[in-house]
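In the design runs reported in the main text, the only information available to the sequence generator was the tokenized backbone. The following block is the verbatim input for one such run; it is reproduced so that readers can re-run the procedure and compare outputs position by position.
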């Protein structure tokens, strides 16, 4: 396994739309394992391949308290269940040290392939539902700051540019 460098906002590569995985082969499994190591090391709850500059539809997550329940999503799609939306505070490994409330569907039904290439479905609610929507956005080149007002987004942009100028890891 290997830790991968994470792209940081406003890096334009985060805007790339990811392509579907054709076969879950050893290369994809290696990517999944490297992404899990990277996510756990960075203490994140989700990571999309886009964030490590691999533009394929692969996501890893773990929203469990004891970090013991990795979830692998290859070619994920989801549909909201019902019309209920709720705001929840979000952060992103590509936008360190910034958090903001984003309203999203409270419940979703997810369809994806697992690390073994088999299709599965699950219903998610609350934190997991938010995480699925946030990570799937990454595969479309969308970031949670896109949902904020232009003024707030501009403030985040300046904060990140300052951070990068100070020579912190990009
Ligand atoms: Ni993110």
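Verbatim output:
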């Amino acid at each position: 396994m290997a830790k991968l460098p994470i792209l940081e906002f406003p890096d334009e590569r985060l805007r790339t739309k990811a392509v579907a995985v054709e076969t879950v082969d050893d290369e994809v499994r290696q990517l999944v394992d490297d992404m899990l190591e990277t996510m756990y090391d960075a203490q994140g709850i989700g990571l999309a391949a886009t964030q490590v500059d691999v533009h394929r539809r692969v996501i890893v997550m773990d929203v469990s308290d004891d970090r013991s329940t990795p979830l692998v999503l290859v070619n994920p799609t989801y549909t909201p269940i019902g019309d209920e939306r709720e705001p929840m505070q979000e952060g992103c490994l590509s936008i360190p040290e910034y958090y903001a409330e984003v309203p999203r569907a409270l419940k979703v039904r997810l369809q994806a392939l697992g690390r073994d290439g088999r299709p599965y479905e699950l219903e998610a609610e609350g934190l997991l539902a938010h995480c699925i929507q946030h990570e799937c956005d990454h595969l479309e080149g969308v970031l949670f700051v896109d949902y904020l007002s232009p003024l707030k987004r501009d403030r985040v942009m300046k904060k990140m540019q300052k951070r990068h100028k100070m020579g912190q890891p990009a």
